[in-house]
Amino acid sequence: MSRLKKKGVYMNIFDILYSRKSVRSYTGKSPSEEQLQEILKAAWASPVARARFSDMHLTVIKDQRILHAIEENMSRVVGEEVHPLYGAPVLILVSVRPAQKEVANNEYSSAAMIVHNMALAATAMGLGSCDIWGSIQAANGQADIVDMYKIPKDFVACCGIVIGETDETFPMRDIPKEKISTDYIG
What is the dihedral angle through the alpha carbons of 25, 158, 53, 107, rounded to the nearest 10 degrees? Predict the structure, then answer.
């Protein structure tokens, strides 16, 4: 599949950008293998700071035991039952091998670009997706959960994206002019 389709109609990039949204309601059905491979291809096409592709790693997690452990940990952290993965059947974890002692801004930015490319690909195929940050950061403090990820040695999980089929639709959003404060210089 060289171009992505939504309900049999090719979407252009602006349709995808203006209809993308965070989905927090899933049917429980996973993307097909073909869809998953397209989403991963979008990740692989992402820009990465200083072209450090070998310092980035993706982990596709479908194991409900791991997904449950992440949610259970977050419930402990906030002190009440929460479901930050929203019942999505797939989590794609983005990890980085930090160049320094701590993960740097450019490494987090690269991880965010990878997640965003996957979100755009999911939207183009009519799949739901939602960026996941806090639950991944909270789980990083739990060695038992991190061990379940089986990420390479010296890598740190930065963020992820949940993906799955949804009953939600993706109408074009009205984007207010200067929704983000904008200055023009020159």
Answer: 120
Instruction: Say which residues have a Cβ less than 8 Å from residue 95's Cβ, sequence separation at least 6.
Output: 56, 57, 58, 59, 149, 151, 152, 155, 156, 157, 158
What confidence score (pLDDT) does residue 2 get?
A: 37
**Are the beta carbons of 103 and 52 closer than 8 angstroms?**
no
Looking at the domain that runs over 27-164, which CATH code has it been given? 3.40.109.10
* SS3 call for 133: coil
| Residue 95: closest CA among 176, 174, 151 | 151
User: Looking at 6-10, 27-31, 132-136, which range is the least confident one?
Assistant: 6-10
Tell me which amino acid residue 11 is: M
Whole-prediction pTM value?
A: 0.92
